[in-house]
Structures are given as structure tokens and as C-alpha cells.
């Protein structure tokens, strides 16, 4: 029986001595340990439209479409894929937690044996972690994932963003941002501290460097307030103060959200932003209340402090937040994408039981397609799912964990 343990241990010890350029060679060196002849790393491009091979001196590969290939099916469905007409290889999702990085192609005479799936997934988990850990030490991964030149404004924002997907046993949070290479002022951030998940979604006015500079200040002020232990209202006031101080003629709309994963209690400040949607049982049931505060930077015009809206979520509920670049996207005939089309799309995705990250990927691809690829404004969306476990906590050595 194939065992990936030795390969994983060797990679964990060997990889810290090299940069990201060395990963293809290192991973291929452990191929015999999992009864393989070749292992190729594919990474998703920024638009999540293609899987691009990270190649060294070994095998030659071309980029693969996420929409039309088995490799793409492994990426979107998170399942091991194999073809009956090409039985010597399998495609394995490349994950870090729930963040989809790409896929591994494993070429092996044992590819038809499903006993290989477990060791292949174990190896892919290790490789995904190595890609993330090695990426800051070189530019090869960033260059590979870019299919077009990235503007400086986008460089600033992508450098700020946390991973697009985060999950625990209690909840899943996933986000998407388009256009990837020339974004304006949309930015988001999140953090889990104890039993509070904090999420901020910001849409700053303007485009280009000025917008990304304002977005950078907004998210940095948000992190600072959160790390200082401020509550939701004082967090909004702090961000407002900094924007007004440094950019007195500009502002940002925002959603500031706190979720208690243990109870499902949701708290929201809407600072001039489109109202988030509450999704339940496969459909959008209502829009959360509109603005409870002025846009950040205009707080001096308000006569009272920001108000916090509270909602008690049901297990399985989802919150869909978005910027106006989604609903205001226009087709060639000038018609807006609109809220109705957004709700219909998400309802269909939920009823098709798509994974949360795949729902968001398809949503942003639909918005881009609706505009025939001519994206005029940032289209950013965020989907938060609360899914408390319904099974008892199993007792495992080292302490209890939830069965996800």
C-alpha cells in the first residue's frame, strides 16, 4: 500500500532550504515514494480561470482551463479526478485549509487504484503548505499566476488581502475580487479572535492609486482598531477619524460585521453600503437593513453614533455582502446586472449545492461575462456561511475536536 508519510516528512525538512523556484524539483524527487513517475504543481491564476503549471527542469505542461478539464473539475469540486482514457494520472486538489491553490497532477502506473487517493491528498496538503510558505521568498508564484500585467494600485491591494477563503468547523468565509489586475478601491479583511469572527468590506471612492491608498488606510485602521480591542461602534468611529484626518475630501462605504460562531449572533454596522442578503434554505429571504451609519470619513456630519443591527442566524444561514460593482455592472445593452439577477444566480448555485468558494468564483465569472469582459468597476463579493456542527464532539488524544 502506498504511504505518503516518508515523502511528506522529507519535503518538510528539505523545502526550507530553498526558494519557490526549487519546489517543482523537490516535489518530483518524492514521486517514487508514492509510486509515481511525475508530479506537477498547477496553480490557479488570479482570475481563477486557468491552472498554470509551476515547472522546473522536468516535464513540460500547458495551462489548463478550469471550466473544461478534469484538472479544473478537481479544483472546483475538490475531488480526485481520473480519466478512463488516460489511466496513468490523477488530478488532486491543492488546498491550504479551505483555500484552493490549484491541483497536483500525479502520473503513476497505480493511478487507477483508488487506494492512491488518500496518500495523494496527504501529499497535496503538504505541497500546498510549501507553496504558501515559500511564496514570499521569490516572485515565481506571483509571476506565474498573472496572465496580464498588474497595475500598481492592484499590487497595493492584493498585498493587503488575507486568503480568499477561511473555514472552521462552525463557518466558512469566502471572497472574490475582480478585476484582478487593475482594481480600484474595494478591499476586505477578517480575523477570528476567540469566539468572534470580525469581517470588514470597504468600497472607497475613486480609482487607481488614490483609491488603493485610501483602501490601504481603511483596512489598516480597521485592523488597528480590532487589535486594540475596540467594539464595533468604536471601530467604525476610529476608521472614520483616520479617513477624515488623512483624506478629508474622500470617504469609504463599509460593512463591519461580527459573528459569534458558537451562537450564530450577527452584528452589523452598515456605513452607506449596499445591504447584505440573508440566504436560508437555498434562497435569498431578505436584505439586511440598509445604512445604519454614514460612509466612513463623513461621520462628522452625523448627529448620533453608528447603530448596530443584530440578527440571530439559523444553522446553515449565509450572508452575502457585495459592492456596487456587482449590481451596477452593465451589459452591452446598458442594462444593469442588478439585485434580482444576483439573487437568482445565488439561489441556483445554492440549490446546485456548490461549495461556497465555487459559488463565489462562478458569480464573479458571471459578472465579467455579463460585461463581455469590460469591467469598469471593482466587483467584490463576500459569502459567510454559519454551519454549527450537529454531531457530538469525538474524544481524540490531545483534546476534543469537532467532526467537520
Automatic annotation (TrEMBL):
SUPFAM superfamilies recorded: PP2C-like
Protein's UniProt keywords contain Hydrolase: yes
InterPro entries named among the record's database cross-references: Bact_Sigma-Reg, PPM-type-like_dom_sf, PPM-type_phosphatase-like_dom
SMART domains the record matches: PP2C_SIG
UniProt key word Mitochondrion: no
Source superkingdom: Bacteria
GO molecular function terms attached to this record: phosphatase activity
Keywords, ordered alphabetically: Hydrolase
Sequence ranges assigned to domain PPM-type phosphatase in this UniProt record: 170-386
Matches recorded under PANTHER family: STAGE II SPORULATION PROTEIN E, STAGE II SPORULATION PROTEIN E-RELATED
Stated name of the protein: PPM-type phosphatase domain-containing protein
Organism from which the protein derives: Micromonospora wenchangensis
Amino acid at each position: 500500500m502506498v504511504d505518503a508519510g516518508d515523502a511528506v516528512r522529507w519535503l518538510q525538512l528539505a523545502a526550507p532550504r530553498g526558494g519557490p523556484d526549487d519546489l517543482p524539483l523537490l516535489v518530483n524527487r518524492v514521486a517514487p515514494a508514492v509510486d509515481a513517475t511525475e508530479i506537477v504543481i498547477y496553480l490557479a491564476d488570479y482570475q481563477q480561470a486557468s491552472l498554470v503549471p509551476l515547472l522546473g527542469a522536468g516535464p513540460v505542461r500547458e495551462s489548463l482551463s478550469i471550466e473544461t478539464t478534469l484538472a479544473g473539475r478537481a479544483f472546483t469540486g475538490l475531488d480526485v479526478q481520473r480519466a478512463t482514457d488516460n489511466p496513468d494520472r490523477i488530478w488532486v486538489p491543492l488546498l491550504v485549509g479551505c483555500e484552493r491553490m490549484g491541483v497536483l497532477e500525479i502520473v503513476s502506473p497505480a493511478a487507477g487504484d483508488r487506494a492512491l487517493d488518500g496518500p495523494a491528498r496527504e501529499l497535496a496538503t503538504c505541497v500546498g503548505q510549501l507553496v504558501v510558505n515559500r511564496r514570499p521568498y521569490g516572485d515565481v508564484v506571483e509571476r506565474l499566476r498573472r496572465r496580464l500585467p498588474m497595475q500598481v494600485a492592484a499590487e497595493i491591494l492584493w498585498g493587503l488581502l488575507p486568503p480568499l477563503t477561511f473555514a472552521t468547523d462552525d463557518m466558512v468565509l469566502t471572497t472574490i475580487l475582480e478585476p484582478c489586475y487593475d482594481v480600484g478601491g474595494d478591499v476586505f479583511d477578517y480575523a477570528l479572535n476567540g469566539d468572534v469572527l470580525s469581517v470588514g468590506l470597504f468600497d472607497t471612492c475613486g480609482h487607481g492609486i488614490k483609491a488603493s491608498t485610501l483602501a490601504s488606510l481603511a483596512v489598516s485602521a480597521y485592523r488597528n482598531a480590532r487589535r486594540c480591542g475596540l467594539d464595533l461602534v468604536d471601530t467604525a468611529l476610529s476608521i472614520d477619524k483616520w479617513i477624515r484626518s488623512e483624506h478629508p475630501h474622500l470617504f469609504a462605504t463599509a460593512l463591519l460585521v461580527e459573528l459569534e460562531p458558537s451562537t450564530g449572533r450577527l452584528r452589523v454596522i452598515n456605513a452607506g453600503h449596499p445591504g447584505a442578503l440573508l440566504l436560508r434554505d437555498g434562497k435569498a429571504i431578505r436584505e439586511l437593513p440598509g445604512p445604519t451609519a454614514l460612509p466612513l470619513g463623513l461621520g462628522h456630519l452625523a448627529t448620533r453614533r453608528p447603530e448596530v443591527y443584530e440578527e440571530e442566524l439559523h444553522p446553515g444561514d449565509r450572508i452575502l455582502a457585495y459592492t456596487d460593482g456587482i449590481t451596477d455592472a452593465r451589459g452591452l445593452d446598458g442594462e444593469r446586472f442588478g439585485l434580482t439577477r444576483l439573487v437568482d444566480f445565488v439561489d441556483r448555485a445554492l440549490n446546485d449545492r456548490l461549495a461556497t468558494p465555487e459559488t463565489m468564483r462562478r458569480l464573479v465569472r458571471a459578472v465579467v461575462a455579463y460585461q463581455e469582459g469590460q469591467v469598469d468597476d471593482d466587483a467584490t463579493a463576500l459569502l459567510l456561511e454559519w454551519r454549527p456542527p450537529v454531531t457530538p464532539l469525538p474524544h481524540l488524544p490531545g483534546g476534543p475536536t469537532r467532526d467537520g
